[in-house]
Amino acid sequence: MELKSIKSLLALVFSGFLLVAAQGAFAQHETPEQVGNDSAQHAPKKEGFDAKEVIFGHIMDAHEFHFVDYKGSDGKEHAVTIPLPVILYSSKKGLTVFSSSHFEHGHAEYQGYKLVKETIGEKIVSTDAAETVYDFSLTRNVVQMMLALAFLVWLLISIANAYAKGLGVTTAPKGKQNLMEPIITFVRDEVAIPNLGHKAMKYLPYLLTVFFFILINNIIGLIPGTANVTGNIAFTAVLGLISFVVILASSNKHYWLHIFNPPGVPLGVKFILVPVEFLSVFIKPFALIIRLFANMVAGHIIIICLISLIFIFAQLNQYAGWGASPLAIGFTIFIYFIEVLVAFLQAFIFTVLTAVFIGQALEGDHSHEEGAAHH
Fold it and tell me: Which of 125, 229, 333, 365 has the fewest beta carbons closer than 10 A?
C-alpha cells in the first residue's frame, strides 16, 4: 500500500506540475499592434444586463475569484472578490508582481498596466504600445488546480497512513476509507484489469490520479464563484498530452506493425488504411481533450443561460421577469443535478478511454491478453 501511494503521489505531483506550467504556456502576450487594436475596439460598456459578458466571464479564466456584485449605500457598484497575484514580465520593466485588487472593473491602471476585459476573457496589457507583456499570473484556474492537488494529496496520504496503521484491514473501513475504497476497487476491477490485464497494477496509480483529479475539479467547479477548470482547453490539453505520452511509452513493435502493415489487408487497401491508422494515434488524445472540455463547458453555459433568462425578461418587463423566475430556477436546479452526474461520468469516461488506448498500445502482448482472459 505504501509503494502504491508513493507512485500515485508522484504521478499526481507530476500531473499537477505540468498543468500549472501549461497555464503559463497558454497565457497570451500582447504585441504593440494588438494593444493598439484593443484600445480602438473597446467601446464604453453598455447599460443593462449583458448575458454574453456574464456567460463568458464565468467559463473563462480571470485574475480573481468573483462572487457577487452589489450597489453600496453610496450608489456605486461594488463586488465581493478574492484578488490573486499578478505576475508579469515585460521587455522594458522586467518582472513585476502585485495584487489584482489594483484593477477596478478592468479600467484602472497600475504601474503602467491595465486589465482589459474582452468577450472571451480578460488580459493584462501595457499602456506603452511598444512594450511586450508576458502574463504568468496565478489566475483562478491555477489557484483552484493547486487547491485540488493539495486536497487530493492530503486525501490519499491520510488513507494510506490509515491502512499502514492497520485501520480498515481487519475491521470494516470508516470515514474517508469507507468512501474511497469502493471507488478505488471499482476503477481497478472494472477499468484497469479488463483493459490492461496483468499490467493493470502498473498503470493503476496513474488511472486513479487522473480519475480523482478530474472528479475533484469537476465537483469544485459546480460551487458558485469558483472556476470551471475542466472547461478550460489548456487544462484538458495537458491531461490529453500526458495520456498521449503514457500511451506511446506503453506501445510495442506489434502495435506499430499493425498500424504500418495491417495483417490480412490487400496491398491496395493499405495505402488508404495506413494513413488513417497513423492519424488515429493523434486523434485518440484529441478525443480525450475535446470530450472533457466540451461537456464541462456546455453544462455551465446552459445553467448560466437559464439564470440569465430571468434578467433578460426583467429588462423587457418587471412582471415578465418574475414570471420567468420559477421556470428558469426549476430548470436550473434540474440541470445542476445533471451536472453532478456528468462530473462523475466525465471523470470515468476519460479514465476508461485512457485505459482502453493504453491497452491497445499493448496489443500483441500475449501475457497481457492471458491476464485479461484469466480475470
Answer: 333
> Can you list the alpha helix ranges (DSSP code H) found in 60-110?
none
Residue 287: pLDDT band by 50, 70, 90 thresholds?
very high
Same-domain pairing of 129 and 167: no
Set of cell numbers at residue 106: 478592468
CA 258 – CA 261 distance, rounded (Å) = 5
* Domain extent at residue 331: 2-14+141-374
Distance between CA atoms of residues 313 and 322, nearest Å: 8
Angle value at C-alpha 196, between 194 and 201, nearest 5 degrees: 105
* Owner of C-alpha cell 496513474: 206
Kindly state whether residue 293 falls inside one of the protein's structural domains. Answer: yes
Question: What gap in Å lies between CA 104 and CA 79, rounded to an integer?
Answer: 10
Cell 503514457 belongs to which residue? 246
pLDDT above 70 covers what percent of the chain?
A: 81
Query: Is there a contact between 306 and 331 (Cβ–Cβ < 8 Å)?
Result: yes
Q: How many domains does the chain have?
A: 2
Torsion (CA) 315, 44, 227, 16 in degrees, nearest 10: 160
Residue 175 corresponds to which cell in the numbers above? 470515514
- Do residues 124 and 225 both lie within one domain? no
What pLDDT score was predicted for residue 32? 38
C-alpha cell at 78: 461594488
* Count of helices and strands (H, E) across the chain: 12, 9
Fill in the amino acid letter for 187: V
Sequence-ordered alpha helix ranges (H) in 93-199: 140-164, 176-186, 193-196
Domain end call among 105, 136, 167: 136
91 and 160 part of one domain: no
Helix/strand/coil for 96: strand
Same domain, 117 and 170: no
**Does a structural domain hold residue 305?**
yes
Q: How far apart are CA 171 and CA 300, in angstroms?
A: 42
The reply to whether 364 falls in a domain is: yes
Q: How many CB atoms lie within 10 A of CB 244?
A: 19
Instruction: Quote the pTM value.
Output: 0.78
- Residue the block writes with cell 494593444: 35
Q: Give the C-alpha separation, 22 to 315, whole Å.
A: 41
Name the domain boundary from 102, 136, 170. 136
Identify the three-state secondary structure at position 106. Answer: coil
